[in-house]
Amino acid sequence: MKKSLLISLLLSLSLAAFGQMTAEEMLAKGDNYYEGKNGVARNHAMAVKWYQQAAEKGNAEAQNQLGYCYFQGEGIQQNFEEALKWFKKAAENGSAKGQTNLAACYHKGETVEQSYEEAFKWYTAAAKQGYASAQFNLGLCYENGEGTDTSFTDAVKWYRAAAEQGLSDAQNNLGMCYDGGHGVAQSYSEAVKWYKRAADKGNTMAEYNLGVCYSKGQGVPLSYSNAVKYFRKAAEKGFADAQYNLGVCYYHGYAVAKSEHEAAKWWSRAAKQGHKGAIDAMKQL
Q1: pLDDT tens track of the chain, all 285 residues?
Q2: Backbone angles phi and psi of 172, in degrees to 5
Q3: What is the C-alpha separation between 144 and 9, in angstroms, rounded?
Q4: What sign results for the dihedral spanned by CA atoms 213, 217, 220, 223?
Q5: Residue 175 to residue 66: CA distance in whole angstroms
Q6: CA-to-CA distance for 116 and 95, rounded, in angstroms?
């Protein structure tokens, strides 16, 4: 009888403590389990439990995280409808991450009918909160005229906002705008500056673009050795244009020992991805 009474008392105290937790504390618990930090072993199922509790209390970040778990099938059975439901709640409650995830669903037509207009609306809401990923995607919308009129000036504005926060994709795209003079005064030196920042973070396209700058002496002194260095970085990650250019360097012996064998190796890799230049180049071997 005493043992039963003690168990009931402990259970009541535990439930009371649980009920007194704030949504923010529940979110933190969820994050600990999701990331496996603060002395807690990674457990996505437990993370979902805590995110659910916090989400039902109206916490926007927990709603976004719960939506993400449903979307990825992490800690719970994958359910795109539930993911969309929670992304919408998070977005409407002001979560920049939730707004961005909801925008991405509309942008790609995932879990919902594609709508560039809705994507643009939610990217804009998140971008205005300073969320770098949304700023980059909003820049893409302006560049490609998706959900809005095409405007390279606005694309540059949002690429710059994200680039200054260190987002490598935005740094690369801002570099490309300077490279081509799109929405900004053409400047190879500014292009190289942003390509270098992105390449230092391992951005594949920026590595390729920087290689092109070195191969042409645009914004930097002409240097085939540096061109080969950056082409190789991007080529080893499977970037077809870089594989083709690295093959060209080997074929002509630019800063590397001339080798048709090495040229063929890289051209064949690019050709397998449908690169026309590489396909044609293979015919001359």
Answers
A1: 444 544 444 444 444 455 689 999 999 999 999 999 999 999 999 999 999 999 999 999 999 999 999 999 999 999 999 999 999 999 999 999 999 999 999 999 988 999 999 999 999 999 999 999 999 999 999 999 999 999 999 999 999 999 999 999 999 999 999 999 999 999 999 999 999 999 999 999 999 999 999 999 999 999 999 999 999 999 999 999 999 999 999 999 999 999 999 999 999 999 999 999 999 999 988
A2: -65, -45
A3: 63
A4: positive
A5: 36
A6: 20
Question: Residue 273: how many CB atoms within 10 A of its CB?
Answer: 14
Give the amino acid at 39.
G
- Quick one: residue 130, left, alpha or beta (phi over 0 = left, psi -120 to 50 = alpha)? left
- Which residues lie below 8 Å from residue 234, measured CB to CB, with a gap of 6+? 204, 205, 207, 208, 211, 241, 242
Q: Are 100 and 119 in contact (CB under 8 A)?
A: no
